[in-house]
Amino acid sequence: MSTKEIEWDGLPIPKRYGAILAIAMGITVSVLDGTIANVALPSIAEDLQATPSMSIWIVNAYQLAIVVSLLSLSSLGDILGYRRVYIGGLFIFSVTSLACALSNSLLMLTIARVFQGFGAAALASVNTSLIRIIYPKRHLGRGMGINALVVAVSAAGGPTIAAGILSVASWQWLFAVNVPVVIAALILSFRFLPVNPVKRSERKFDWISGVMNAFTFGLLIFSIEGFTHGVSLPVLLPGIGVMLFVGYFFVRRQLSREYPLLPVDLLKIPIFSLSVGTSVCSFVAQMLAMVSLPFFLQHTLGLDEVATGLLLTPWPLATMVAAPLAGRLLERVHAGVLGGVGLSIFSAGLFLLAVFADQVPNVGIALFMAMCGFGFGLFQTPNNSILISSAPQNRSGGASGMLGMARLTGQTTGASLVALMFVVFPVNGTYASLYFAGGFATLAAVVSFSRVSLPEPELLRGKAKSG
After folding, report:
1. Sign for the pseudo-dihedral over CA of 44, 45, 46, 49
2. Which residues contact 248 (CB under 8 A, 6 or more apart)?
3. Helix, strand, coil fractions of the chain, as percent rounded to 5
4. Domain 12-194 maps to which CATH number in 3.10.350.10, 1.20.1250.20, 3.40.190.150, 3.30.590.20?
5. Cα separation of 386 and 330, whole Å?
6. CA-to-CA distance for 139 and 145, rounded, in angstroms?
7. Residue 27 in contact with residue 90, Cβ under 8 Å?
8. Assigned CATH class of 263-453
């Protein structure tokens, strides 16, 4: 077995700044493109002479491509190098963004969005693995804090940026603006991104597992999305059956692999599996709140779109403050404690919104929103750090992939639960969604605090020896 190990403790300044900027730029455009097209769907459908229901595939194609390829690309990062996969993702994203801008039919745009999703998956699959080797061990939390900040702000700012572009240009520019940003990120990546400090030349990519993974998670998300959009159960049952059949043999195959595509071996590490579970619950809570709150503010409180947008703004603003702060606090406070405190604040904000939002002035609602955003930001940085650092150095790609899958699974489940709440509680669906969100956040807080009894990865404090 040939293993090459390099003594490594991050990049020196200013190379570190160039590397993190390359990652921030790539992640910004990939996250933005997950939400930015939503605002333009009506105009895109009209321009391409498509029905509203068919135009939804412009969004779904992108998300499905990410889900089916994320873990495979994470595995390739461990084998080929995180730098290569990230740069390859940037190249694919730039070419397909241009293809999206030049599309003159729904079919062409949908195909371009599929390949754009593959590019975005490559970026998401290894970005936290790169942060692990860009930052010194003692400052890993700071790097994770910056990454959490970029993701949160990009996700929250998507609709606003889309509205700004559409006010002065056509929908094609939503995709065309990606090109110069990604080219700049490519230049920075070639110059500053480091190679993997640990390489295993004997490891080969498991293509069979890759195909099984695509079927399992693709059909899972497709079934959840179908349920959300009102597809009848008899139509969904065949896909669910195939998913369960393939998924069973997929998991069995992973249990016998030395380097499984689905990192079931990493899930045997208690603090890793608890961190994955906490991440899923937190994103379920986040999506339950973010999808239901606009309905709550407009239908229940009678606010208009402008007031709704303004009252939602404190959430991402508070996250912008909390995420980098958490990165610095992580150097002094146990990640389980810091994450638990953040989730407790998040949960309190959600319950306060559910109970008092219709009884307090708008300033009170803004305060509750800020609590949610601050708590979520305070949690994400330590949770991501502890998840990535608890995996061996040569399995960082698998850990990064699990982090991305936890986010996608939680977000998709949360959005589907909102649809279920509106069906089960036609009058009080928004209240039910917020109460459920608070419940998931509370559960995540309990799990996070339980990690305090487990040994914290020494890498978080810079105590680990290289290798």
Report:
1. positive
2. none
3. 80, 0, 20
4. 1.20.1250.20
5. 10
6. 10
7. no
8. mainly alpha
With CA atoms as reference, report the closest residue to 290 among 443, 423, 437, 164. 437
**∠ CA 97-99-101 to the nearest 5 degrees?**
70
Beta bridge partners of 5: 198
Tell me which residue of 278, 281, 284, 305 sits closest to 294, measured CA to CA. Answer: 305
Instruction: Locate all alpha helices (DSSP H) within 233-303, ordered by sequence.
Output: 233-255, 270-295
| Spatial contact of 118 and 92, defined as CB atoms under 8 Å apart | yes
Length of the chain: 467
Written as six digits, the tokens of 319 are: 């996250």
With vertex at residue 447, the alpha carbon angle to CA 443 and CA 453, rounded to the nearest 5 degrees, is: 155
The full DSSP string for 188-241 is HHHHHPPPPSEEETT----HHHHHHHHHHHHHHHHHHHHHHTT--HHHHHHHHH
So what's the pLDDT on residue 463? 42
Q: Are 105 and 204 in contact (CB under 8 A)?
A: no
What the block records as the tokens of 12 is 């020196």
Scored b (16 or more CB within 10 A) or e, 314-328 reads: bbbbbbbebbbbbbe
pLDDT digits (tens, 9 = 90+) for 389-405: 888 877 777 788 888 88
Give percent above pLDDT 90 in the chain.
Answer: 26
Nearest CA among 99, 296, 298, 264 for reference residue 179 = 99
Here the tokens at position 267 are 């899930």
What's the pLDDT score for residue 271? 87
Q: What is the pLDDT of residue 61?
A: 84
Predicted TM-score of the model (pTM):
0.78
Note the helical H segments in 49-194: 52-55, 57-80, 82-102, 106-134, 140-166, 172-176, 178-192
Report whether 19 contacts 193 (CB < 8 A): yes
